[in-house]
Amino acid sequence: MPVKLRSLVASALAAAGLTLATAGNAQSSYKLTDLGIGEALGVNSAGAVVGFLWNPSTNVYTGFKWQSNTLTTLTPPAGYSGFIATKINSNNQIVGYWNSAAGFPYSRTAYYSAATGAVDLNSLLSPQDQAAWYLTGPGQLSDSGVVMGEGLYNGTDTSYRLDLTTTPYPTITQFAPVQPGWEQSAITGVNSAGLMCGYSISNATHTRTGFLLSGGTFTTLPLYDANAINDAGDVAGRAYVSGIGYQAAFLPYGASSPTICGALGYSSLPHNVNLPTNGMPKTVIGDSALKSGAARGFRWQVGGKIVDVTTLVSNLPNKKWAVTTAQAINGAGVIVGQATDGTNGHAIVLTP
Question: pTM (2 decimals)?
Answer without folding.
Answer: 0.90
